[in-house]
Amino acid sequence: MRSLFFKIFVWFWAAMALVALAVIVTTSLVQSKPVAERWRYVTGTAVGIYAQTAVELYERDGPDKLVIYLQRVEQTAQMRAVLFDERGTEITGRGATLNARQLAKRAGENGEPQIDFPNAPDTAALIARRVYGRGGTRYVLVSEMPGGSRFSAMQSEPGAFVWPVLAMILTGGIVCYGLARYLTAPLAAIRTGVHRIAGGDLSVRLGAKLGTRRDELADLSRDFDLMAERLEALALSQRRLLGDISHELRSPLARLNVALGLARQRAGESARGALDRIEREAERLNELIGQLLTLTRLEIGEEKIERTEIDLRDLVNEIVADADFEASHRRRHVAVVNSDACVISGNEELLRSAIENVIRNAVRYTAEGTTVEVALAYRLTGSQREAVISVRDYGGGVPEATLGELFRPFYRVADARERKTGGTGLGLAITQRAVQLHGGTVEARNAEGGLVVEIRLPAATDK
C-alpha cells in the first residue's frame, strides 16, 4: 500500500468496523438472557399491573367499568386486552380468539406469564398473565402486544444482526472515504505542483485549489506558492539580466569589427594570421550573443509566434541541403532517408532554427566519412496527427545519465570536445524552447554507434 489515501481509508474503515463488531460482541456477552426472555419479563410485568387493576374495577364496579378501562388501555398503550374468569369465560364480551383462550388456560394452570410469538410478521404477540381477586378468585388477562413478531425473529434468526452490522460498515466506509479524500487532496495537488516545477513551469500556484482550508496542509500549500513565486521571480530576473548583458555586448562587438577592418588596412602581411584569429573569435562571440538573445526571448515569452502553414517536407529538405554543403568541407554528409508529406501550422524561422541546431550538432559529432541521417515521418494515432523529425549521427552517443541534460542551456558533455567543435551549449536549448512553443516535444536517445534526436510536432494534415 504505497498510496497515503488508501492507507488512511483502509485503517479508518477497519477501525470503525472493529469498534462496531466489538460493541456487538460485548453486548452479546454481557446479556445473560435471550431477547425474547427479557421481553417476556418486561411485558409480563406490565400486563400484570393492567390485569390487577382490571380485576379490581370488575369486582368493584362491574363489567361496564371494566370495558371502559380496557378501551382506555387500548388507546394509550396500543394493547387490546380481554379478561377471563377461572372457568375460562371471557368477561368483557369483546370476543377472544382460539389462541387467546388456549393461552389463558395455560397461564391459569401454571401461573407463569405466557407468550405466544406469531409466525406472521404483521401479527401481534399474545401475552397472558394470571392474577387473583378478592377471596382468591382467579382471573387471566390476555393482551395483544404489537411488535412482538420482531422479537420472535431476533430470537429465532441468528443472522438478524447481520444487516445492521453491514449498514454500519458501509456507512463507516463512506465517511472514511470522504475523510481520506479531504486529508490527501492537498498532498496530491502539492505533488502535481512539484512535478510541474521540476518540468520548468514556475507559474504553478496551489491557493485556488484549496479553497478556504485553514489547516496545516493549507499552510504548506501557501508556503509552496511563496516558494514558486520566488523561484519564478529569480528565474525571470536571471533571464532578463542575461538578455540585457547580451544586448549590451553587441555595441562593443560592432566597434571591434570596425577596428578589425581598419587594422587589416594598416597592418602588414605579418599580422594577417593574428587578425584572422581575432575575426574568428569575434564571429564566434557574435553567434553566442545572438543565441543568447534568442533563448532569452523564447524563455521570457517575448518571441511572438506568427503562425502560417508550413510545408515541413520542403523545409527539412532545404535545411538538409544547406547542412550537407557545409558538412562536405569537413568530410561528412547529411542526407534525407525518409520524407513524408506533411503540413504544420507554426513560425517558419523558429522551426528552421530548431531543426538546423539539431542537424548542425549532429554534424559536429558524427565521425568523419559518415552521413547524418534525417527522416520526416507523418503519423496518425487515432485522431492525433503528428510530424516526427529524427536526426541520427554516428558519433558514439553520450552517457545515458546525461541524456536529459542535453537541452539545458550551456550544458556540455565534455568541455574539451565542445570547445574543439565550436559549440556554445545553446543550440539544443533553443531547439527545445522553440518546439515547446509549437506544442511539441524533443528528446534524445542513444542508438548503436551514435545519437538520435527526435522532434515531435502537431501536424495539421498530410499533403
What does this structure look like?
Mean pLDDT is 78; it is low at 148-158 and 415-420. The strands form 3 sheets. A 5-stranded mixed beta sheet has the order 6-8-9-11-10. A 4-stranded antiparallel beta sheet has the order 1-4-3-2, sandwiched between helices. A hairpin with a 2-residue loop joins strand 10 and strand 11. By secondary structure, the chain is α+β, with helices and mostly antiparallel strands. It is built from 13 helices and 11 strands. The chain is rod-shaped and about 155 Å long. The two termini are 51 Å apart. The longest helix has 51 residues, at 216-266.
Secondary-structure element order, N to C: HHHEHEEEHHHHHEHEEHEEHHEE
Number of domains: 3
**CATH architectural group of the largest domain:** 2-Layer Sandwich
Number of strands: 11
Q: Cα-atom Rg, whole angstroms? A: 47 Å
Low-pLDDT segments, ≥5 res: 148-158, 415-420
| Morphology | rod-shaped
Strand order of the largest sheet: 6-8-9-11-10
The major pleated sheet works out as:
5 strands, mixed
For the termini, the CA-CA separation is 51 Å
Task: Please tag this protein with its features.
single chain; 463 residues; alpha+beta; Beta-Lactamase; Helix Hairpins; Heat Shock Protein 90; 3 domains; 5-stranded mixed β-sheet; 4-stranded antiparallel β-sheet; rod-shaped
